[in-house]
């Protein structure tokens, strides 16, 4: 059981929280970072699009960060789950499930989102392995392969055009009547893209490698990869709401510039604030917020 007082508590040790810890550590701030270690992308084998780290395993990125952080003795990393945060006059009191209690002047939430994928048989087995939600993260590896795009939103036609950028061997499965007008349906025809509106029964795979999508009318199509539109991710932690920060219509926490919130001393960064920052975007927000927050502390102490 740990009990201490520090300048900043960071909740969440993904790229957002870790980069904030690094910059605050280098700013001579005492920092405690508490992380439950269940990042949004934990189901994937590889992460892409982060300069110098393209193809890295999600936890390898974190291990490298932990290793580099060792030289900053003013930064403490704790593996655990924060169960509550209270604002008491000028300080925050952060409590973990294992009864650690940390008092701090500022708190950064970098708690991310958790995926909420549709409950279709077999989807869990392939999600993050050969079926994904973010083409910028994973479509390159499946370029020119037989791909299925799964989902149905008002933005459907734009998603179809986007995935077609990586593979022209594309089938769209809307799992019900498609939200496409007649002109858009003709567009698919012109591009040789098949539209299947019949509900999906299951995904068939071998060792997480997608092989077939089976529909309720018995049809089975061969596909090697898939993309899902709108996986319905939810906040990993609702504690900011308890502290007075509202969720906007996209179910992201309302923030201002530099991750500030309307609660003085409370910051929110990464996916929790933007719904999707990507790894490098979250890391960048961690840097920006740390710089701003350190400046606030400098001014307060002058
Ligand atoms: C399948 C999939 C693949 C992806 N692939 C890529 C990719 O290739 N490239 C890319 O750039 N992006 C990718 N992403 C997106 C990327 O994962 C996120 O944008 C990024 O992780 C956001 O970083 P973050 O720091 O905001 O949150 P996260 O990385 O999700 O970290 C949040 C951390 O906070 C912890 N936490 C939450 N609540 C608490 C609590 N109460 N107490 C303590 N800790 C808590 C969580 O356990 C987690 O460790 C992918 C996403 C998915 C779903």
TrEMBL record:
Cofactor(s) named in the record: FAD
GO-annotated molecular function: thioredoxin-disulfide reductase (NADPH) activity
Start and end residues of each FAD/NAD(P)-binding domain: 7-282
Coiled-coil ranges per UniProt: none
EC number: 1.8.1.9
Record's keyword terms, sorted: Flavoprotein, Oxidoreductase
Origin: domain of life: Bacteria
Subunit field text: Homodimer.
Protein name from the UniProt record: Thioredoxin reductase
Source organism per UniProt: Halalkalibacter krulwichiae
